[in-house]
């Protein structure tokens, strides 16, 4: 089978990560790289890849069929459109663009040129997310009615361009895109409302974190939080169902499930001393009332993204990451910015999708 020849534009952190992943996938091969920084061109060459002298040279090379965009966010649109117009298929890093309008322009060009455009929403394949998705779909703790999805660090906003609005910096457009995409992909009901607060603790012109509260039409609620000033972290996932609760602590997938044994209304908990008082409500449930389970770890590979992309190019498969979904995600992100700015709860029903 003919491998897809991929040229990476932007050989920074993520571009060089893609280079390694591409080497490991039998459907694709790395054809070359281009970066506007000479030092990154040299880094690519030192890693064994050939560097084009310019974007134009990369796009005019008829032997490459796919352009992978891993530049800062503000230039995704212009590179994507140029690449599509040059007849290339395109893989684009997230956030796809700075706003939904820019994505519409790209989708229009892709359609006109008959080329595939797919966004790298790679965290749909994350093991921690797949574990929660499995819990949700198989109703292992009953009907899940509340989900908390958090990523917290204490290193501030990384790098240079992520501090600047003009480059599409800030955490909502960074980690926020991943966490929101995961929830929209998993929950089988349209998103109805969003409320949000952005944080500017570090004094940057862009948000260094945010908290958003989502309400889905089926009643499921979700709290999404990204923080860069958290010296003590909360668990990556906290999930409540009608028959139990679950947590995943971290990316090592340490977690647990605690659920009802069926005797919860028979075996009363013993009151405990709490602070200066006594409580039965907040006492741990009696051992007979609960079952503690190991949260089975799931191992996922990144192969599915490139494999799916190659199949879409060959016309053998539907894209796992659909542009219409990404468009709705961008509309919802715009609503979250608006909710934070106005302090209002935004109705986002018209933008929602469900599988
Ligand atoms: P980075 O700063 O490490 O790398 C960006 C590179 O692009 C730099 O080497 C820079 O010189 C180059 N560049 C800038 N403008 C260019 C242009 N016009 N043409 C060619 N090269 C150009 O940034 P990064 O962390 O690698 O992020 C790049 C993209 O990848 C962003 O969109 C980011 O959101 C995304 N990203 C995605 C993930 C993920 O898991 N999906 C993780 C990290 C970053």
Automatic annotation (TrEMBL):
<feature type="domain" description="Gfo/Idh/MocA-like oxidoreductase N-terminal">
    <location>
        <begin position="4"/>
        <end position="120"/>
    </location>
</feature>
<dbReference type="InterPro" id="IPR036291">
    <property type="entry name" value="NAD(P)-bd_dom_sf"/>
</dbReference>
<dbReference type="InterPro" id="IPR055170">
    <property type="entry name" value="GFO_IDH_MocA-like_dom"/>
</dbReference>
<dbReference type="GO" id="GO:0016491">
    <property type="term" value="F:oxidoreductase activity"/>
</dbReference>
<dbReference type="GO" id="GO:0000166">
    <property type="term" value="F:nucleotide binding"/>
</dbReference>
<dbReference type="InterPro" id="IPR000683">
    <property type="entry name" value="Gfo/Idh/MocA-like_OxRdtase_N"/>
</dbReference>
<dbReference type="InterPro" id="IPR051317">
    <property type="entry name" value="Gfo/Idh/MocA_oxidoreduct"/>
</dbReference>
<dbReference type="Pfam" id="PF22725">
    <property type="entry name" value="GFO_IDH_MocA_C3"/>
</dbReference>
<protein>
    <submittedName>
        <fullName>Predicted dehydrogenase</fullName>
    </submittedName>
</protein>
<feature type="domain" description="GFO/IDH/MocA-like oxidoreductase">
    <location>
        <begin position="129"/>
        <end position="246"/>
    </location>
</feature>
<comment type="similarity">
    <text>Belongs to the Gfo/Idh/MocA family.</text>
</comment>
<keyword id="KW-0560">Oxidoreductase</keyword>
<dbReference type="Pfam" id="PF01408">
    <property type="entry name" value="GFO_IDH_MocA"/>
</dbReference>
